[in-house]
Amino acid sequence: MKHLTTLFAILMSGCLLAQSEYCGVGTVWDAESQTCIVAENVELLDSNLDGVVGVEDLLNLLSHFGDEDMDFDGIYDSVDDCVGAYDECGVCNGPGPQILGIDTIIVYYDSLYAEAIDEWWVFEVDADTLLGYFCEYSGCTNPTADNFDPYAFEDDGSCMGGDPCANATTVTFDNYDYELVAIGNQCWFAENLRTTTYANGDSIPGDLDGEAWGSTIEGAMAIFGEGNSIVWSGDENEVANLELYGRLYNGFAVFDERGLCPNNWHVPSDEEWMTLELTLGMSETELALEGSRGTDQGSQMKATFGWGGGEGNNSSGFTGLPGGVRGYGDGGWFMNGGFSAFFWASTPFDELTLDPSAYAPLPLAWMRELQKNNSQVSRSFASQYSGQSIRCLKN
To answer: pTM of the predicted model, to two decimals?
Structure first.
């Protein structure tokens, strides 16, 4: 205890030492005499032998009482979040940037003056790519794209041209293989989602009775015709319906931050549905309209089977099937199975434009509908309490 008291007394004079001439090894500054004097027990007091008794020496002394500061950063190791140093990537004692990527692309140009036409011709003569190491590196990971980056660690959505599905024909999610289809510059699931888990593995609540379905504000799923809820129109065979149509999900599941689709996939927005419709030939002036729009875009999206006489030509490969809808009132009824396909968009509807008394319950979201006897595509909105089909779109 005597040494500790002495040490604190010497530390108090440390500020004066910084303003005085340097005291040699084994000596300390004495504030009273204003001179350097020989320090008693110098190896204990000046443990790092730098000629100054400072914080580092105090921590070394206190290490004898059960704590230490191995990295000499002034923080006891017992409370230090990193005993050592953080690298450039924020990893304690990490190796630093390790991901090889494109740092700079240099293009060399030359020029030639054509005197007869008084014009300079500028042309590329060479190019060089400089690589570097990064903590994270994103770019186009589609090997068929025009701007494929072989060094990209994660896709950033910048791919141009090529096959948007990167030559893949299926993707596996929740132990099921989904067929894929490339439509324009987009890659879509060619069948409805049927997962029982969110992308992080958390279970999605299911088997809700009508009352629970109509009152929950959490994500939920259903199979058309399940349980004791009334089926107003459509097949009550839930086993067959699951096989053909997949599952129905309420809007709260669509907007759950855990995600319904696999990693690098998502529920398409209203604008992304418009991109699909535009690719299939719908005029730009009709895209933002509500109700049935376009010409034969619905027929291009509908499967050649399962519509009971109202099949489409499926020229897009979308293979839309009439999975119906689950309502949120009157016992969570099911309707329009075999007649209509309802698909969520991940874009909320602007509630401020509505009279809340006319549309209940809120909140609402945009959606698309394909109908048995209609070759167009309907754009409208629905309560997020209802259950509809999901198609996933690649990021």
So the answer is: 0.66
